Each structure stands twice: as structure tokens, then as C-alpha cells.
């Protein structure tokens, strides 16, 4: 069984106004090492990280526990945490202290200054870089549907953007972000990363912001395409699907099946559509690359990884969680429904705080 771990970036907000609060340093100063909390680019963010887990039930418990710990530590300094991929209310982000963050600000200007976005990164264990790159080459068609399912950022600077994941549009400003071509081998992957860093356009290897990459810290494939999910159940679903994709792709590689020959330009269009529509659809269906409903694409993804999910004991759980998500809508739909009911973005934030640990 491949282990899987999840990193979630959470927004720190004022409990009364709902506005982002730059208190991550205060939170981290009092946090314990075992809390699994880290700082991010902006002081209005906090990152949680689970341990690697084999059983999805154990991962689900830890995701909720990490959120609860983050909430407890934030409240101790007069703030709350919200699993929102962008702030619904206007924000003027504050860069976290640290030499690397200041280098980012100097090198990338407004892109770094405005980058108050919260993602969800899923790490799945692989046996080698060669297997990892084989997986990266084969998961490419299925990353846009993951973005659609996780979409949780309809608002930006107090306005409805018309997108379900506006985070994905803001994140795409980084020079290395987005889908990439198939590499063919670990050697070619590392050659390309080295060549990218050598251009001077990136500070270091940590800035290789592909939608999915080899982790430069752990022996894992790291899928970085998703918004942080409002509901922890959706995070669990994304993690299960990512592990299913990794295992399905590794099996295809061992069987000698080549990756689908889809151009990066088409992947970019599918990602744009996923960010625009979310799980309400329409989306671009992988492999046929024709328009299709979100339900059709979501169930095609689950069918693609069904054997791997079944072998891991995750199939029934994934089917149930996917049915729930499609029935209620994703995070963006929930946020918009709260706004329609209340007419107040502060209420959106307050209810997001409650849902984050509820």
C-alpha cells in the first residue's frame, strides 16, 4: 500500500470582520513541533501537514485533527482558520519574514505581493524517481478534473470572479506553474529542472511549481493542482483519487502502456475550464478532449482509478464522497450559496470557519 500525506494551506482571519490577519508568526511561536504547522509566503496563511498514512480512514482523522489544532492555536492569538483558497474579503497581504520570501518578493514583484492563495498538496510514495516520472507522464490528463472537484475560490478582493477556482488563475502567474509535457525518463526530468533553474528565472528547484512534480524533500509524487477544500471530506476524496491515479499510472508503466500523447496547450485549456466551471461543469473530458458534464468527467476519473481504489479498500468510500460533493456542489458553490442567502461576505467567512473544523 502506497503511503499518502496531505498539506493544507489555511487562511488566518479575524473572527469579527472576517478579514485576513497577519498573525502566523504569533501562532507558530506558541505551537508545538508535533502540531505539524508551518509558515507560508504570507503572514495571513498557515500550513498543516499530515504524516504519511496507508489507511485512508487514518488520513481522514489526521486531516481533521490538524485542522482542529490549527484552529486552537489561531484562537489563542485572537484569530480563526478558514479553509478558503482565496479571501472573500479585500486583502492586503503581508510577506512572512525570511530571506527566501524577501527574495521572492524582489524577484517577482506584484505576483508575490498578491499571492494570498491556499492550495492542497497530496504526496504519494513512489519506489524510485523513474517510477515517479512514469507516473507524472501518465497522470497529466486527469489533473484538471481534480482541480474542478476541489474548486473553492470564487471571490477575489471582495468581488465574485465568475470562476470556481480563481486561485488557479492567480497561481498561474508564477513562471513555472501549470501543466507540463511528458518527460519520458527521470534523467530527462532532472535535466529539465536543472535547465529551468539555470535560466535564472527561478530562484531554486523549490520553485518548480508544476501541477504535479517529484518532491525535492520526500520520495513522493506531489500533486499540487487542488484548491484547499472547504470540507475535510473533499480533501479525503482528493487524496484517495490522487493515490488511485499514482497506482493506476505505475501499473500502466509496468505493463508497458505509453502515456496519452496530449499537448500541453490542450491541458492548459482543460485546466482553465476546470477553474472556471468547477464541479458544476461543463468540463473537458480527458482522452477524448471534448466538452462533457462535470458528472461525466468526475465518474470517468473514478472509473479510471477504480481497480486501484478497490485494491486499497477505498472504492466505496470514494463513490460515497464523490456523490456527496456532486450533490451539494463544491466549495465555490457553497460559498456563493451562503452569499446569496446572507448578502454578506463576512458571513461567508464565518460559516467557512465553522465548516473548516466542523
Automatic annotation (TrEMBL):
Superkingdom, taxonomy of origin: Bacteria
Biased composition annotated in UniProt, kind: Basic and acidic residues: 33-42
GO function terms (MF aspect): ligase activity
Keyword hit for Nucleotide-binding: yes
EC annotation from Swiss-Prot or TrEMBL: 6.3.2.2
Keywords: ATP-binding, Ligase, Nucleotide-binding
Catalytic activity: L-cysteine + L-glutamate + ATP = gamma-L-glutamyl-L-cysteine + ADP + phosphate + H(+)
InterPro entries: GCL_type2/YbdK_subfam, GCS2, Gln_synth/guanido_kin_cat_dom, YbdK
Region feature Disordered, mapped onto this chain: 33-52
Pfam families tied to this protein: GCS2
Gene3D superfamilies recorded: 3.30.590.20
Function comment: ATP-dependent carboxylate-amine ligase which exhibits weak glutamate--cysteine ligase activity.
UniProt record similarity statement: Belongs to the glutamate--cysteine ligase type 2 family. YbdK subfamily.
Name by which UniProt lists this protein: Putative glutamate--cysteine ligase 2
